[in-house]
Amino acid sequence: MRHILIFSLLLQLAVLAPFWALAQRTPARSIRPVKTPQDTVKRDSVTLPAPKGDIETTIKYSARDSIQLEANNKVVHLYGDAKINYGSMTLEAAYIQIDYEKNTLTATSVTDSSGKDIGVPVFVDGAETYSAKRIAYNYKTKRGRIAEVVTQQGEGFIHSEIVKKNEANEIFGLHNKYTTCNLAHPHFYINAGKIKAIPNDKVMSGPFNLVIGDIPTPLGFLFGLFPTPKNNRSSGVIVPSFGENSLRGFYLMNGGYYLALNDYIGASITGDVYSLGGYDLRLNADYNKRYSYRGNFGIEHTYFKIDEADVARSRSTGDIFDQIPDSRRTIFVRWSHSPVQKPGKGRFTASVNAGSSIHNQITGNTRTADRLAASFNSSISYQKNIQNTPFSYTVKLSQGQNPDGQMNFVLPDMNFSMSSISLYEALTKNTPTGRWYEGITVGYNVNAKSTLSNRTERTAANFGGVDVIGGNDTIREISLNDFTTLWENGRRSATHNFDINLGSYKLFKYFTLSPGVNYSETWTDRKYTFRYDPDSNALDVDTAGFGRVYDYSASASLSTNIYGTMYVKGKRVEAIRHMIRPSVSYIYKPDFGDPYFGFYQNLYVGENTNGQPRYEMLRRFDSGVPGFGLQSALSFGITNNLEMKVKSKTDTTGKAFEKVSLIDNFGIRGAYNFAADSLKMSQITMNLNTRLFKVVNIGFNSSFTPYESDSLGRPVDRYLLNGPGFKPARLINAGLQISTNLNPQARRTQTSTPNNLPTLTQKPNPFEPDYVDFKIPWSLNIDYTLNFTRGLGSNPNTIANTVGVDGDVSLTDKWKIGYYASYDIIEQELSSARLNIHRDLHCWDMSISWTPFGYIRGYNLTISARSALLRDLKLTKRSSTSGINFR
């Protein structure tokens, strides 16, 4: 109310000053307002510059009818759309009175001929807005009284019979309705006898109950606390939802407390409690600094308790509970961090997922993708490009974990790279002039890493009963606490890669020749030599300290573009263009299995069942070993693009054209290895991609073999063309994908404006629907998938033929139905389905989600207040189960 005092004192100076001299010469008398027709009276307004003193800006006030002064009584009257502006403060009313004798400011509405109140006083002070029938304020005591007022505090509205405001700008209301519904007669409200509101902080109430549709409900409490901060973030209780799970019974889920630590960090501590025993605890924190970084950290602990009888039944059926340890406790840690890329600055990123192997399978509120994940990985890295140089480096720590508990660590993983540079420019510092040798470039990369595992694998595999001496059929586990043993059984290596480009050259004007050379070399700390012991039928292994492996190849490619245009000159179609891109490449790679290189050992390992000697090719190094066998291969490929030139529909002159793609890409590829002993021709692959009418996406891929097959379906070295009839190739597999979204409005992408406030990331509930946009009247997505795989030998061919439909439709501007279904045409049954129903209740939202079958199935009914301020004011009924079933 400090601002009201300032502008009232200013009005005392500004309004009375012009009349004060006249009042000294003229006998005092009361000035009565004269009512004049509205359409014949001009608005009176006064604008005075701010005088020197405590006043900081210009005062503006106006009235549509008149401004009247009672100089004898020191009273000023503003009639008809009275308005006062001072800085960020505004007061509007049908009538405003300033009484300098009593130090009061009064604003009221008036009643028109039909008995309706017009010109209801509205007071705006920055972000605060008050609307009332009568406002009375004493600017000397800094206290006010407002009758039948509606005040806005953040997202909430307070309807009060009487409101008093003190010098600290605090509001005290009597007989109140607190709601987030912005109607004069709200759909719902919290009915409280007394309310205290501290602007930009909180709203507090005594005993209250919830009223919905003017019907009082027994829902309430002894006191209420509703935060209303400017940034819409504050600490508070997270009310749990309740439901039922077929495995863990009834539950209270996601209840806890949210901590708004500051403008950059928010954290929540939540948990679940189940009626059959067990609980879940979670700590989740989000942080975000605009233009710098953002991330999330979470840790989860689960105690999964089930009856022993249920465990026995599940183990008899081979269910997931057979994997649960006796303690049935799991823990999991997640951390993600991503910075904003800045030129010349390093980039620190983190993606950590580590914990108990079966945590995701037994946690009830986990996404389906997490449940089905066979393994999870973690990595922490720092990467930097050295500015104004071709160099960059990366330091990385990573960890991988399998469902059986095996952990693999790469500590550390260091990479240093030099992007391709021109040797001519680097050595001579001259500007290229177009000579052939100026196009030679060289790139370099080195990767050094140390790999550790909590399980030690045998050096060589079992070959028909031949074991490594001292080995056994199981993998020996190593405790993670025994770092010395981990390091001794680890593997260290450094791999160097050189990418040498010999430039590109034009041949016969239309062809482009691009030769190249690749060389790589790996240094390892292990080199093995094997010896067969016929007495024990086992392998003896000798280990050396350092090993060097290298790999090199030479290649060249020849390509060109062929264009063909057919002019149609039709009513709309002007021409059709066909573009063909044929290419041929050759690669040569020596046989690194030759004893000259020493990368493999062709070892005698006894005799087979026919008494013939048997040999095995054993690798002598853990990593970096190239494949054996000479490679002298010619690869070929051809891609096609077909498009039309049509007249634009929006052009009236007939001179504007646009391109319409008929086939985006249609390609055929294959290879022929001249050095192979047999089966020199590779499989032939064919693929097609296009988009019809800018709506329908079509993708097709297939593989063919040119060889005949034996009774087991294995290829034999005999071409199909040599057989009877014309049969160039045999289909191995094929796939067709067709998809479309029939609503153009739903296909548009939307972007959002970034903000600095971190949003608390909650685990998505598979039953709760996503955000619903009622502005889009309908959407329809259709996808069709057909896959064929030829069976080998006596195995039958397999065909997968499914069609999926998803989308939504707005029955009215308040009702929307969303749907998803996948139908297996071969099995003639629905493979999965989901139905969502949404209802816009103005200030409430209702959603129903039902998943009748599938890995996660159940239903969810939620009725909640739309405002984020009352996010916990909701009713939820949920029942769910998962693919983990008892039989």
TrEMBL record:
Start and end residues of each LPS-assembly protein LptD central domain: 203-707
Cellular component terms per the entry's GO annotation: cell outer membrane; transporter complex
Signal sequence segment: 1-23
Keyword Signal: yes
Alphabetic keyword roster: Signal
Pfam families documented for this protein: LptD_2 (PF19838)
PANTHER family reported in the protein's UniProt record: LPS-ASSEMBLY PROTEIN, LPS-ASSEMBLY PROTEIN LPTD
Name of the protein described by the UniProt record: LPS-assembly protein LptD
